[in-house]
Amino acid sequence: xxxxxxxxxxxxxxxxxxxxxxxxxxxxxxxxxxxxxxxxxxxxxxxxxxxxxxxxxxxxxxxxxxxxxxxxxxxxxxxxxxxxxxxxxxxxxxxxxxxxxxxxxxxxxxxxxxxxxxxxxxxxxxxxxxxxxxxxxxxxxxxxxxxxxxxxxxxxxxxxxxxxxxxxxxxxxxxxxxxxxxxxxxxxxxxxxxxxxxxxxxxxxxxxxxxxxxxxxxxxxxxxxxxxxxxxxxxxxxxxxxxxxxxxxxxxxxxxxxxxxxxxxxxxxxxxxxxxxxxxxxxxxxxxxxxxxxxxxxxxxxxxxxxxxxxxxxxxxxxxxxxxxxxxxxxxxxxxxxxxxxxxxxxxxxxxxxxxxxxxxxxxxxxxxxxxxxxxxxxxxxxxxxxxxxxxxxxxxxxxxxxxxxxxxxxxxxxxxxxxxxxxxxxxxxxxxxxxxxxxxxxxxxxxxxxxxxxxxxxxxxxxxxxxxxxxxxxxxxxx
Length: 480
Hints:
By secondary structure, the chain is α/β, with parallel strands linked by helices.
């Protein structure tokens, strides 16, 4: 069989990429063909996503894929969760989607719990509580009588919004639906109970489809090349973490007694277990873990952690101040500093969206009587060691939930390249860390398109293809 080619559009909070995946002789070869920046745009003191700019970049990616001179079998989009666009009754986008870091949900939880208790919401959804969840965004809009919501007829989560732009389908892919806190994992459908309790328009919520669903073919106005003439639009596991977890190169799939956990590492870190069924119980709620849908009917039981966000924002602040050091230099500066000098909580609300992250870290340390980082090396070490300490705390909870001591941690995504963090994680957790693949999200996206193309018979086979297609680096724990 000749090689088959697929286009994965992977949009993250800070940037996106269009990556061509080619399947030939049992291996997937990924080729980045277009990359672009992403981030919030401010208008009148509010924070939005620039969906128009992202759509233009996606079209450029399609054109570049066609320029390779080989047919593209299908295209699929994955993004972050919770955020959404709203269409009117003529299927027109009403306004730019709010950014999850926008302030309109600040302080929303106590008000929401007066409508439905924390316990009742968790029992219905199994999801962790974050102010940015879709439920609370919609509730904040309803409280404010936001005209965008009042004139809306359909809600499309971010990847669904771009699939609609690609082919006209108005469907909601399941893995992303499960991030909204409006999805019932037991019934595997929208929670009519919460929709009614919070006074949300029921017609907003579109049909939920499984990852691997063929949504249609490219709109005719997007077919500028014969190499796109038969391109299908496929819903991958459209929540980026779900795609990344599919690409974890483990030897099993949804094991009843797992020996490993994963960290999908980027701006956010998602750390958890792949389970056969959701765990909706008091202990999970008290630990603020979340049950999100995975592929093949699995559950991703995980914790959201503020990932490399702190370090990324420190680097941005340093560049703006004229200190444009490359990563190897920063690593050497960090290694020269005293270990475990300053440990902070990377998930503290003060780090969600500060104007200057180094100043926010120093203010936190002063407020909590901690040694304040002063040098670049101390800041880097503080960010990475604090993150690895958070990983350790979550790892211990995952071992308890699994009922056994986990022996391996698979780190996938961009953070898998951070050798210092990988070693710190192995040391902190006392477990072997296997890093890679770096392009896990794109790889998982391509694999789901291959499932739709009937090239992959099952998900165990999919993981075998992943192992054949990537190289792993192993970090063993040692005492500092």
